[in-house]
Lipoprotein
Amino acid sequence: MSARLLLPGLLLLLAGCTASSALPIHTTNPASPPLIGDSSRPAQAQWLRTELYFSVGALDDPQPQVNTARWREFLDKEVTPRFPDGFTAFDAYGQWRDKSAVQPERLSTKVIVILHENTARRSADIEAIRLA
């Protein structure tokens, strides 16, 4: 490839990388087409992100207090009926240390992340899951 074609091609490629989007990033109208159902902008769509943390037992416990079958049953019975459009659940690690303890308490943890509308009904659903 000749240098005469290489330089204009590179400049064109770089110009494409810096081009701005035709749609505005921010808008004062939350019902505008780019934001309808857009979970990547929950604040503009009047949505909330809620994270629920559940300890399932000590990290070094060979028999966790909550096994996989029991966790799935909880999700199927308590979470999915309240949020049938979906949620995310994943494993995590947590720890804390009591003031009088020398070593921290290490815990296996499950996390549920739910994007939901900011309504009283959804708040009640979150509270019901938390108390289940």
In short: Residues 17-26 have pLDDT under 50 and may be disordered. Residues 3-18 form the longest helix (16 residues). The domain at 46-131 is CATH 3.30.70 (Alpha-Beta Plaits).
